[in-house]
Every structure is written in structure tokens, then in C-alpha cells.
Design a protein that fits this description.
Oligomer: single chain
Distance between the termini: 61 Å
Strand order of the largest sheet: 2-1-4-3
Radius of gyration: 29 Å
Helix content: 10-25%
CATH class of one domain: Mainly Beta
Number of helices: 10
């Protein structure tokens, strides 16, 4: 008769005090008393025969777990002491929970709580709870609308800022806040609940002139083809200006001065002017990218041309009600202009600014064109061409000191230093290659992780200052990495103070106080799954030593959180550009891990598409 394994183990435990274990291939020997002093643990069940298991060829009990993590657990059972500085708290807590070592789990939880404060790090600057207090909701909302907003505002989809204001878009309503030095952030406007989900939001907190008055602000939201625009009065009440339709999906929504601009890659531009109170749609060729320069709207189009519209002179043609769309430049190879960045140098003469435009194409080419103010009639001249990307360029940024481009191969970044003479870009020595790195960012295909418009990686910041990328590696995470856009070095890491997932983010500079010498400060605003807004002081972070980008271990740990069986795609949406379904995309976390492995071994090489 064969004796069951469980009874053999029970007899062995009763017949001797020494227990031999084989954990993941490593032998351990300890006493029965050591293993069983914690009641109702894995070991007490194992040695009592309640759990059947295997034995190796020497008769030792085999446990298929990590032996390196079992060592500190066994030491704790022996000494009842814990040395947290020498261990990974989170990994050990997982093992302690498996073995049912309750006293160890409690100690590790305490270590984790001591390490992570609910008040955040020194960079944590503020917390706006989910909206919903009755005093903050307009009285004209219906009872069902009011109760639904009070009960659960849902996750934050988009955060945008202008001057000392921010607008926070939830699924079906938008909330505006303003900050004052004495009182801090105050909720001043909540829109009525809409019948559709918000995909875009735009804020203008500094309306100059016009019939609206100097103190009025404007906020607009869009979903599909529809746009709603409100004006916000000084007392916080809002009035609906109108509902407009672009008749095609709205891909971008923003203000240029008092003008609200909506564009679509299908080739449509919509403009609303605060002075004339007139909405106008204009057909152009399919639009892939855009940027603004003063009162000019610059469009990069599918036919390889760059066009401009002076929206301040709206409307230019009252007779036929057309915007004046003028071709500024045509790419030599007529590739689609997929990314665009305009830099206006300081005025060097009475004739105006030196205009510099960097653009990227569908073939991966990066070009810089320049136009001297005294040679406007001849158009911009080609300054420099780079052919280092082999996938479509999705973002580009030309600033005072750097040229930065991002392509569709897992957000691969190439950067150059820019040489200037008297403020103008110079050919001596020209644009010098600086670095190459990736901003790996995996997103949900079903859209549950947030809104694409709310998770743009950047770069963020003024063009005469150091700019940053914001990296959210996986969708369901409470952690963001802030990295210098010029070289990829990590500025800081921020983690949600309440443990909630980050669903959107935005970097914005708020104006300084009225005190002499006060300067604007840069903040990172993160929107969360519970509807809250958390603020982080990036000005202080930039003054502290930079650390370097996420390590391979950190990236792989985040990738482990991603379900490898599900399809994920990287966030390829440019901050001021559109990309289409023809853009190559990674399909799974496994693919991203392989590309990460390849990137780590080819840091200095050109970007290659697979």
C-alpha cells in the first residue's frame, strides 16, 4: 500500500525537529518550531498534512518559489527582525502574503507607508478633490444631472491651462479653476452635463478687447463634429455662446487670441471670432499637423505643402465668406507634412521677425526652413535636412537651443543642438547631433486608460527654456516620469499621493505673484481615475539634480503590470500634429519589450522600423 505524500510529511514533522526544504532549487534546513510559530500560515498547513506537495530526490520538501526572497522570510521566522534597507519591500510583501506570514506582511506595509506619504514628496504642490460640492454646481442643473455629478464625476480625461487658469474635462462636463496667491486654487465654473463624451477642450483665460470685455474667459469642448463654447464671467457664472459644427471629426481645438480654431485631418478648418461673433468653416487640403505663430495658423498638409491663415484679419473675404489660405512652402519631395513647429526669433529690425520652421514628413525626413523678414516675397529657404528617422515623424519642436523630433517607432526621439548668431539660426557650425532615446508609452486600445488628447508626451515648456517630456509607460499606473526633451535624462518621478491611476496630464506655467522679482513657475498637473487633480512643482524639480531616464529594471517592472495577452498600442498622437492609421504601431507589450531590448543595444544608431 502506498502512503499518501501528505501523511509522510506529517510523520516527518512529528518524528524530527529538523525540516529540509528545497525552494526553487536551493536547499534550506530549519526547525519545525521556526516554520510554525506563525499560526495558520502556509508552513503550518504544510507540516500538518493539510497541503500535499512534492519531495525532491533527497526527501526535502519542494516549494516552487524564489529562493532569494525566501531567505529574508526564513530569517524573519528565525529572528522576528526585518532589515528593510536591504530588500525590495513590494516583492517581499507579495511572497509574505503567499506564505501567510501575517506579522511580516504588517511590518512591510508599515515600511511602505513610511516610505510613501499621503502628503507626497517635496514636489507635491496641491490637490484638487473631485468636483461635486453642492455650492460649486450651477443652480440651473437638473436634479438627475446634479446627483450624477455629485456622486461620481468619473476619471479626468483632459487637463489644459492658460495663464493662471486650468480647465478639467470629465466624460460629460468641464470644470474651470483659477489660482490666486492668497486663496490658492478655486473652482469657478462647471458646465452643464452634456449628452456626449468630451474628446477635446480649449481654454482662453485672457480675452483682449472685443464685446466680451477684458475680464471674460472662454472655454470650449468638442466631441465628434460638435463644438460648444461658453464665456465665463468674473462672478464665475458661464453663458453658452453657441453650438457649432465642423461637419467632420474635430481633431484639434485651440485658441489663437480671441479666435477659437477647430481643425480636422480631412481638410476642414473652423474659426469663431470674438469680435464678429461669427463661425466660419473653410475647406482646405487634408491636414496632418499645425502650429501657431502670433496671429498666424500654420498648417502642414497631406500634399507636401505648408499653408498659413492670418486669423486676426478675420474675415478676409466678406463677399464670398472664405478664409484666405496661402501656400507658404512646398516640400521638395512632396511628402506629407506630419509634424510642424514654428519659431519666431526676437525682432532684429523694424521689418519684423526671422521665421524658422521645422517640419517632419511621412517618410521620416526632418527639414528646417527659414525666412528673413526682408525677403518675404521670395518665401522660406531650405536650411537643413536630416534623414535619421525611417518611420513617420509624429512630433517636432524647434526652440532657442534645440531641435527635437519624434517618430512613430515607439516614440523614438532624435535631438540636435542649435547654433545661433544674434538670435538667428546659424550654419556655423549648424545643428549638431545631441542624443537618441525612446519615450516608451503603451496605451489601451479600448480607450479605458484615458483620452489620447490628455496623455500627450510633449515636449512641454516655453521655447526659450528647457523643455520636458512626460512619460506614462503603461495605462494603469500611478507613476509618471519627467524627462528632459533635449537628452532624455530624468528630471523626477512623481507618484499619485492617493494611489489612484493617472489618466491624463499636462505641464503649464502659472504667472508669478505681484512681488518684485517673482517669476512664473512650471507645474505638472495630473488627472486621476477618481476625478482628482494633483499638482507637482517642476520648477523645483528642474533645480534639483537630474537622475537619468527609467532604468531597464523599472521599465520591465512596469511592463510586467501589462497583460501580455491583450493588445496595446503606443501613444502616437502628436501634441500639435495628427497621424493616421498608416502609421506603424507596436501591437503588444511583448513587441514593446523586444523593441526596448533592441533600443538599449543600438542607442547611437538611426531609428529602424520593423
Amino acid at each position: 500500500m502506498t502512503i499518501p505524500t501528505a501523511y509522510c510529511i506529517a510523520d516527518m514533522a512529528r518524528n524530527g525537529d529538523i525540516i529540509h526544504l528545497n525552494v526553487g532549487g536551493k536547499r534550506f534546513s530549519t526547525s519545525r518550531q521556526t516554520l510554525t510559530w506563525v499560526p495558520d500560515s502556509f508552513f503550518s498547513s504544510l507540516l500538518s498534512g493539510r497541503i500535499s506537495t512534492l519531495k525532491d530526490e533527497t526527501g526535502a520538501i519542494f516549494i516552487d518559489r524564489d529562493p532569494s526572497l525566501f531567505t529574508p522570510i526564513l530569517n524573519f521566522l528565525r529572528t522576528k527582525e526585518l532589515f528593510p534597507r536591504s530588500i525590495n519591500v513590494h516583492l517581499l510583501m507579495h511572497e509574505a502574503e503567499f506564505y501567510g506570514i501575517t506579522p511580516l506582511v504588517r511590518k512591510l506595509q508599515l515600511c511602505d507607508e513610511l516610505d510613501r506619504s499621503s502628503c507626497g514628496s517635496v514636489l507635491f504642490n496641491g490637490y484638487l478633490p473631485p468636483p461635486g460640492r453642492l455650492s460649486q454646481i450651477p443652480p440651473d442643473l437638473g436634479t438627475s444631472q446634479l446627483l450624477s455629478q455629485v456622486a461620481d464625476p468619473g476619471m479626468v480625461r483632459i487637463v489644459c491651462g492658460h495663464h493662471n487658469w486650468i480647465a478639467v474635462a470629465y466624460a460629460q462636463f468641464v470644470v474651470c479653476y483659477r489660482v490666486k496667491e492668497s486663496t490658492g486654487w478655486q473652482q469657478v465654473f462647471t458646465s452643464p452635463r452634456l449628452d456626449w463624451v468630451i474628446d477635446r477642450v480649449a481654454l482662453n483665460a485672457k480675452v483682449m478687447g472685443g464685446s466680451l470685455g477684458d475680464n471674460d474667459k472662454m472655454v470650449a469642448v468638442a466631441s465628434g463634429t460638435e463644438i460648444i463654447l461658453w464665456t465665463i464671467c468674473p462672478d464665475g457664472n458661464g453663458n453658452e455662446i453657441g453650438v457649432f459644427s465642423l461637419n467632420v471629426p474635430v481633431e484639434a481645438l485651440f485658441f489663437v487670441g480671441n479666435q477659437l480654431i477647430a481643425t480636422s485631418h480631412t481638410g476642414k478648418v473652423g474659426v469663431w471670432n470674438a469680435v464678429t461673433k461669427h463661425w466660419q468653416n473653410q475647406d482646405v487640403v487634408p491636414i496632418n499637423s499645425y502650429d501657431t505663430a502670433g496671429s498666424f495658423l500654420i498648417l502642414g498638409c497631406n500634399n507636401g505643402s505648408i499653408y498659413y491663415i492670418d486669423v486676426q484679419k478675420f474675415p478676409l473675404r466678406m463677399k464670398d465668406n472664405d478664409l484666405l489660405v496661402t501656400e507658404l512652402y512646398r516640400d521638395p519631395t512632396e511628402d506629407a507634412i506630419t509634424a510642424l513647429s514654428v519659431y519666431l526669433t526676437p525682432k532684429t529690425s523694424d521689418s519684423g521677425n526671422w521665421i524658422e520652421i521645422a517640419y517632419g514628413t511621412s517618410s521620416g525626413t526632418v527639414r528646417v526652413i527659414v525666412q528673413h523678414p526682408e525677403t518675404v516675397g521670395s518665401g522660406p529657404q531650405l536650411f537643413q535636412t536630416f534623414s535619421v528617422h525611417r518611420s513617420p515623424v509624429t512630433k517636432i519642436m524647434l526652440s532657442e537651443k534645440h531641435l527635437i523630433s519624434v517618430c512613430a517607432d515607439n516614440n523614438h526621439v532624435r535631438t540636435w543642438t542649435v547654433t545661433r548668431f544674434r538670435g538667428m539660426i546659424s550654419t556655423q557650425p549648424g545643428s549638431t547631433p545631441l542624443t537618441s532615446f525612446k519615450i516608451l508609452s503603451l496605451e489601451d486600445t479600448d480607450g479605458h486608460g484615458g483620452c489620447a488628447a490628455g496623455t500627450e508626451i510633449g515636449p512641454y515648456g516655453e521655447r526659450d527654456d528647457q523643455q520636458v517630456f512626460i512619460q506614462r509607460v503603461v495605462p494603469d499606473t500611478d507613476k509618471l516620469y519627467v524627462r528632459l526633451s533635449s537628452n532624455g535624462k530624468r528630471v523626477c518621478e512623481v507618484r499619485s499621493v492617493d494611489g489612484t491611476s493617472i489618466t491624463s496630464f499636462m505641464v503649464h506655467e502659472c504667472e508669478g505673484s505681484s512681488r518684485i522679482g517673482s517669476r512664473p513657475r512650471r507645474y505638472l498637473f495630473s488627472g486621476h481615475a477618481n476625478g482628482s487633480i494633483q499638482m507637482w512643482d517642476l520648477t523645483t524639480a528642474m533645480e534639483i539634480a537630474a537622475l537619468g531616464g527609467p532604468t531597464e529594471e523599472e521599465l520591465l517592472e512596469l511592463l510586467d503590470q501589462c497583460d501580455l495577452a491583450l493588445t496595446r498600442t503606443p501613444d502616437m498622437s502628436p501634441a500639435a500634429s495628427f497621424t493616421h492609421s498608416s502609421t506603424p504601431r507596436a501591437s503588444t507589450c511583448r513587441y514593446a519589450a523586444r523593441r526596448l531590448w533592441y533600443c538599449q543595444r543600438h542607442k547611437a544608431g538611426p531609428c529602424t522600423a520593423t
